Amino acid sequence: MRLVDRIAQCRRPFVVQNSTTRALTRLNGAADFASEMARCPMRFVLSDELTRLCTALAYSKGARQLVCADLLHVPAESVWIEWCDAAWLTELQRYGFKFPASDLKGLGHRGALIRASRDGRRGLIRTFWTVGSANPEVLASSMEAYFDLDTPEGEEPAAPDAQDLATRRVTASIEGEPDIMRRYFRFRYERSWADYYQRAMLSRQTEAAIAHDALSNIAADIPMLLAFFLLLATRNGLPRRPHVLERLNRARARSGKVPLLDHIEVLSPVLPEHDGAGGNESINGRRAPRLHHVRGHLVRRGSELFWRVPHLRGNARSGVVRTRTVTWTIDRPVSGHLDRRPPSGNEITEQLMPAG
User: Fold this and answer.
1) Which range among 12-21, 248-257, 328-337 shows the weakest confidence by mean pLDDT?
2) Is the dihedral angle over the CA atoms 144, 103, 74, 180 positive or is it negative?
3) Between the CA of residue 259 and those of 8, 83, 245, what are the distances in Å?
4) CB of 122 within 8 A of CB of 77?
5) Dihedrals φ, ψ of 307, to 5°?
6) For residues 96, 98, 101 and 107, what is the CA-based torsion angle, rounded to 10 degrees?
7) What is the Cβ-side half-sphere exposure of residue 235, based on CA atoms within 13 angstroms?
8) DSSP secondary structure string for all residues of 279-315
9) Per-residue pLDDT tens for 152-210?
10) pLDDT of residue 57
11) How far is CA 115 from each of CA 75, 111, 201, rounded to the nearest angstrom?
12) SS3 label, residue 217
């Protein structure tokens, strides 16, 4: 069953108990999004290939320097995006992120619900995932991310509501590089979670550890989601396969089962192949490179994006692999730019960087 259906059918509230006072507290969780998920007009399920491509676009060498915020927008006021956890984690591991081996064997799914403005430039993001295999439990992130892609330099992104909550800032690049996350995104606890931790009177060290763990459940998703929206905005878009489940749901209704939600499966575009070529023992009088892996590289020139696919260069006989470049074109006019200087602010800043 898709994660979107698990959330839509979730009725069990998320309740925690104080180990000292035994008091029960209900916190905002997956069950609170059941009706909203059923009403969501646009639901995307990413293929494993597309999940890996978007993750590579987000974290490959050179991708952090891409100036592309003016090309981004959320395609609807309410959007659901879902992907396979294993495909995402495996690709992240290629770019230096460390995970326990048990995590990479999971069959769970992750997803994000985005509520956006009409122009798709501002909004709020909440992430969800499953835990377990036989009867997986659906969890929702205790933190949410809000963004404003039109935030002027030196100013803070505007929150989508009037809630006065402490925010955190995440950086996803080295100092001095353009950083979409740092400039346009802020992270905060959802209101019920913020109140719960405030009442808990935690030590500074414990509070920092909990916040770091909460950020890890949402921050790493953001660059991949941005890469997906970027591909959606290209001239040819992405291959789509609508799943209209009306016929199946009639059969489920006769069996007394809950209907499943329609969704759109989004596939990876067909990328050009790259061929190995046997070469001479030397190139321009120098010894040819040994076989090695070259990470993908993303470059923007005006309204065109160029993606040099990850490839092997060289071989055991000092041959060279000829590579291909994929070009995506954005149809709509380009306006605005990303300034390269990070904003000032007093929020807590965390760094989203792969290990090593």
Assistant:
1) 328-337
2) positive
3) 10, 21, 8
4) no
5) -115, 110
6) -80
7) 9
8) --SEETTEEPPPSEEE--EEEEETTEEEEE--EEES-
9) 988 999 898 878 889 999 887 655 566 888 899 999 999 999 999 999 889 999 999 99
10) 86
11) 10, 13, 32
12) coil
pLDDT at residue 179 in the model: 80
The H-assigned helical ranges of the chain are 3-8, 34-39, 48-59, 85-94, 101-104, 180-184, 191-200, 204-216, 221-232, 246-254
What's the token pair of residue 78? Answer: 């309410």
Q: Would strands 282-283 and 286-287 be described as parallel, antiparallel, or unpaired?
A: antiparallel
The C-alpha atoms of residue 224 and residue 92 are separated, in whole angstroms, by 10
Give dist(CA 99, CA 164) in Å, integer: 34
Cα 336 from chain centroid (whole Å): 24
Confidence of residue 340 (pLDDT cuts 50, 70, 90): very low
Looking at this protein, which amino acid is placed at residue 273?
E
The amino acid at 342: P
pLDDT tens-place string over residues 95-106 = 777 776 666 555
DSSP state of 266: E
CB burial of 137-163 (b: ≥16 within 10 Å; e: otherwise) equals ebebbbbbbbbbbebeeeebbebbeee
Placement of tokens 């995440």 in the chain? 170
Class of residue 33 by CB neighbours under 10 A (exposed 0-12, middle 13-18, buried 19+): buried
Tell the residue number behind the tokens 């149809």, with chain if given: 331
> Encoding tokens for residue 2?
């898709």
